[in-house]
Design a protein that fits this description.
Rossmann fold, alpha/beta
Length: 290
């Protein structure tokens, strides 16, 4: 080997070493055995959640039909049977995200998933672009996995909804049999009306443009609607929380204070009920661990 060749070989090795240093550190394989709940951090990191912020399913009132449908769908999926992606939409504060987390806990507790517990992975709205890649990583996992996106919606000129459509359809591989997607939203069709109208006004075929946007919701086999609760349901929620927390208070006094609280908030919902009980517990010297 000539001196010129030696020099070139040394130079090539230095370049190769420099490229190795610039290359990103290989990502660790997802280990879902570490916990039952995770938060997704792009591009493929799953951060374990030691203690999930959730309400027992028994305390969720005023959403009986939606609760039973979602619990049954989740139970079937955990058992390896056919189940549908679900969109929980409607009034704010009525327990949409609470129901998803409660369904996960209930399924592992009541459905007897044994040594293969159902896993819950939360993906934030702004990370939806990474969903197809995450689906690919999860396909090889030996667990049944619920992917959960809270408050899912898309703004004007936001094209990440296409990543969601691709992930829900699964492309040529199909959606992984061990992955199900649950989302909550205040909107039934996920996309703002102005976005649809703009597409309609600029498209060669307006009807097809709008149909493409609306079809996103069609990827969800279950549409579960949540509506404002009645006064009776609101009071029942509060009674359940108070009983669970072991707070001793006269029933009439509780009713009067609860109604006054909802009047000052201008709304009745599960969230308002929980906020009232938080305030009540604090005033009476209780810790609210629900």
């Amino acid at each position: 080997m000539t001196s010129t060749e030696d020099t070139q070989l040394v130079l090539l090795r230095r370049i190769a070493d420099a490229l190795d240093r610039l290359a990103p550190t290989p990502l660790p394989a997802a280990d879902l055995a570490r916990a039952d709940c995770f938060v997704f951090q792009p591009p493929t990191t799953l951060q374990p959640v030691p203690k999930v912020n959730r309400v027992p399913v028994e305390l969720l009132r005023g959403i009986d039909r939606s609760r039973e449908i979602l619990l049954e769908n989740t139970r079937r999926f955990a058992a390896g049977l056919s189940a549908n992606n679900a969109l929980l939409w409607g009034a704010r504060g009525m327990g949409k995200s609470s129901l998803v987390k409660a369904a996960h806990e209930w399924t592992n507790r009541e459905a007897g998933t044994g040594d293969r517990p159902l896993k819950l992975i939360e993906i934030h709205r702004e990370d939806i672009d990474h969903l197809p890649g995450l689906m690919h990583v999860l396909r090889a996992q030996p667990f049944q996995i619920l992917l959960f996106c809270d408050d899912l919606s898309f703004d004007h000129d936001d094209t990440s909804y296409k990543s969601l459509k691709a992930a829900l359809d699964g492309g040529v591989e199909g959606r992984p049999a061990n992955v199900l997607f649950y989302a909550t939203s205040n909107r039934r069709h996920l996309l703002p009306r102005t976005m649809m109208e703009n597409e309609q006004s600029t498209a060669i075929n307006p009807g097809e443009a709008v149909e493409e946007k609306v079809s996103l919701s069609d990827r969800f086999g279950l549409w579960l609607g949540f509506h404002k609760c009645s006064q009776d349901d609101y009071l029942a929620m509060i009674a359940g929380y108070v009983r669970q927390a072991g707070i001793a208070i006269d029933a009439e006094a509780l009713r009067a204070e609860a109604l006054e609280w909802s009047t000052t908030r201008g709304n009745r919902s599960g969230r308002v009920a929980y906020q009232f009980v938080q305030d009540l517990a604090g005033r009476l010297g209780h810790r609210l661990d629900i």
